[in-house]
Amino acid sequence: MIGFLRGKLIVKQPPQLVIDIGGVGYELEAPLSTFYALPAIGGELSLFTHLVIREDAHILFGFGTERERRLFRELLKVSGVGPKLALGLLSGIDIDSFLSCIESNDVDRLIKIPGVGRKTAERLIIEMRDRAKLFGELSFAAVVGDTREAPHANGAHAEAFSALVALGYKPAEVSRLLKSADASASTTEDLIRHALKVATK
User: Fold this and answer.
1) CATH number of 67-135: 1.10.1470.10, 3.40.250.10, 1.10.150.20, 3.10.20.280?
2) What's the predicted TM-score (pTM) here?
3) How many CB atoms neighbour CB 157 within 10 A?
């Protein structure tokens, strides 16, 4: 099992990224919460990882913190929740808000996340309730760099648009969410964060 990677960031196109480690490019998928803290292309970073083995593929997932990876693994234990949906949950809502939804039985907020229907939300609340109580706050700090790339505004909008569509939002809905973005949101990460905040209100 690959538990940790450290290397140079070569590609970041949510949810995919590529890390160069000793001349070998490792492809990973990561939640948007991890993308927010990625360094610029060419920067050094470290990620916790989880390997999912399927009949047709081996998929490596990367996380900026051990806490993100732990929740991802807990979500995979829920009936009907696969890696794609688990990644979508981590991308669509922060960990503390998710745990709060579980504790308060907030189905309505969970179903605003793409791919989460009412039955799935109810199942998450039932099956995650006891695990959420034990989850707690981990002491592991984020290990990714905090240097941020600041692309041209048009490039940032295009990247944010692609990331949100990849997350499961409809193109028309993405356009609406990005139009509502604050004028100060100039980076891809800021645009995505603002759009998700509006989408889950």
Assistant:
1) 1.10.150.20
2) 0.69
3) 20
